Amino acid sequence: MQMNIQETLQQKLGKEIAQASNEEIYGALLSMVQEMAGEKERTDSKKKLYYISAEFLIGKLLSNNMINLGIFNEVKDVLAQNGKNIAEIEEVEPEPSLGNGGLGRLAACFLDSIATLGLAGDGVGLNYHLGLFKQEFKNNLQRETPNPWIEEKSWLKKTDVVYPVSFKGLNVNARMYDIEVTGYNNKTNKLHLFDIDSVDETIVEDGIAFNKEDIEKNLTLFLYPDDSDENGRLLRIYQQYFMVSAGAQLILDECTAKGCNLHDLADYAVIQINDTHPTMVIPELIRLLVERGLDMDEAIEVVSKTCAYTNHTILAEALEKWPVYYLKKVVPQLMPIIEVLDDKVRRKYEDESVSIIDRNDTVHMAHIDIHYGFSVNGVASLHTEILKETELNNFYKIYPEKFNNKTNGITFRRWLLHCNPALTELLDELIGEGYKKDAAELEKLLAFKDDEKVLDRLVEIKHANKEALCKYLEETQGVKVSPDTIFDIQIKRLHEYKRQQLNALYIIDKYLEIKAGKIPAAPVTAIFGAKAAPAYVIAKDIIHLILCLQEIINNDPEVSPYLKVVMVENYNVTKAEKLIPACDISEQISLASKEASGTGNMKFMLNGAVTLGTEDGANVEIHELVGNDNIFVFGASSDEVIEHYAKADYVARDFYEKNPAIKAAIDFITSEEVLKVGEKENLERLQHEIISKDWFMTLLDFDSYKEKKEEALRAYADQKTWAKKALVNIAKAGYFSSDRTIEEYNRDIWHL
């Protein structure tokens, strides 16, 4: 094989590998890998899964595909023999801007697992040209700029598949592009991304502003365009309908080509609706089936047996609701169908809370999914219980049989084999390679939990990963940090419920203690990575505060030997792959009951970090698996939080007035030191928000958080015991493989 790879590359390059540039080698590898992936394309089985999602955060693909195809090490060796470094060639590849947070990353992990398990299942989404945005920091503020990624040499394959999509007063064509999805030692599936040929990147002006009404030019420019005005909200409906209309036509074409007569669609297709963004696929499929000769009642029945819905949130504002007049403005052809769907519900159930169109003439997308799909799943055991008991209890009473839990998972190919080769090598040596196909085999590692040599190796590997991150941070951001400090990391979307502000208040408290002469036992580097949605003002203010703290603390000679703050710019998958293997303490500090699952928590655990977290999302299951000694849990429970909301008895100002440490930390936000490097308006607004509102109860958990975090920092001093905690976390992470999640989806929902 080795000669073969060397020959193939040289053939594609038309020159010796040693003579080629990194860019040329990347192009040749991309072409070679695409060909190999194409040769492994799965022959279609009768029934197929279509996983529809507004985002697929797939990350860079070259190395991952080479790992899945089993050629990574050979390619690496061939390149090294020719004086080339695979890491430098990876740097050439742009990261696809097709997603933002956990929702999109989960979809990408799922596609990897579906292919790895040899299941027939393709992704369906949109081909965004400029992503969410590229984050830049200027004057300690987030600035948004376009994030282009599509180059001449790309994983995207343009197809001849084109579908007409009709909006009110506008007909467009949706062209399909494909990205190959390789399975680990298995077949290749596809990610189908729809695009519009007339899209025009030049209409983007200052930052990420553009004309939101020019649909033919803007339709696939950005993921989640700013929805703070009506045109932005309408554009989101245009995007969603474009995705599902083209997707529905593709599904019907593929099924009829295999002999489906439309009445038996559910024998040929199962559609997984990932969050509410693709909901319109239900009325659109009904419309297409009626157009092709089925009567309305049968069309509804057929579609209801074909579609399943994954709920990803209990935040009411994240469950999409669209005014009827918006839908009439963009997709009037769907309104008569949605009205029929609503009418059927109203005839059956008197409870108005389960209707699809409410008395304010608003369409509830999740209600369509629940009534007219055959399965509703949550994404962690706590989340599913909350859906059944409170958030969707009115639906659970009607359809108890539809509700089920599928705890999220992550692909170990990317989040271990690719991003932590040293740990992978140690695992191979100790427990064999079986865990790469069956993650439960990681449990075998527990046999070594008292083995001094193994624990020493874990400490060495972590230190080397920290050194690599230090080098990367210095090269990319000019920040100097020491690998001999505790790396405390919080990386995730910036949202008040995820409570980056709690971490920031702790940092202020720590800073004030050090200034007062209380020197901590162990130095800490607090690392953040997060993008805030462009219209989410308070989230951007939190970033502003963190950047101000970074400037103040890192430049203070009294404090910086003991505490440093780093906010990573433009956090993405590529940066996560460098941060996660280097982490000591994993910050998972959302308000209990608010995080559906979280998957960063799983990636950190797999790479030997210890969780500091609330009993929220999948933290609950991590806690159950690793036991009390190997996790640091703090904060109010989800039951307590839900009760506070019910009674409306949480008053942030009381905590501010009665707790001197909290008061000092919050007052510091608008102190002279901070105002010197920050913007008065942003800092005062954030301070006011925390004191007068604090909807996600930051101050409720402050004392408990501080106490647990100090306990974790003290525990770190005993490196042997800490390494043992890390080992138990790695050994127990097998449950969180997305292969296990996908096996459960298939067993209970898809039946492929």
Overall residue-averaged pLDDT value: 97
Assigned CATH class of the domain at 421-740 = Alpha Beta
Strand percentage lies at 5-15%
Q: Specify the biggest β-sheet.
A: 9 strands, mixed
Query: Which assembly state applies to the chains in this document?
Result: single chain
Question: Which architecture of the domain at 421-740 does the CATH hierarchy give at level 2?
Answer: 3-Layer(aba) Sandwich
Number of helices: 31
Going by CATH, the homologous superfamily of the domain at 421-740 would be Glycogen Phosphorylase B
The CATH topology annotation of the domain at 421-740 reads as Rossmann fold
N- and C-termini, Cα separation? 34 Å
Rg value: 26 Å
The main sheet orders its strands as: 5-6-7-2-1-8-9-12-13
Shape: globular
Number of strands: 19
As residue ranges, the low-confidence spans are none
How are the SSEs ordered, and which strands pair?
Elements: H1 2-13, H2 22-39, E1 48-52, H3 62-68, H4 72-81, H5 86-92, H6 102-116, E2 121-126, E3 134-138, E4 141-145, E5 157-167, E6 170-182, E7 188-195, H7 215-218, H8 230-257, E8 269-274, H9 281-291, H10 296-304, E9 307-310, E10 321-323, H11 324-330, H12 335-348, E11 362-364, H13 365-371, E12 376-378, H14 381-391, H15 393-398, E13 403-405, H16 412-418, H17 421-431, H18 452-477, E14 486-491, H19 500-515, E15 524-529, H20 537-554, E16 563-568, H21 573-579, E17 585-588, H22 600-606, E18 610-613, H23 619-626, E19 632-633, H24 638-647, H25 652-658, H26 660-668, H27 672-677, H28 680-692, H29 702-716, H30 719-731, H31 738-750
Parallel strand pairs: 1-2, 1-8, 2-7, 8-9, 9-12, 12-13, 14-15, 14-17, 15-16, 17-18, 18-19
Antiparallel strand pairs: 3-4, 5-6, 6-7, 10-11
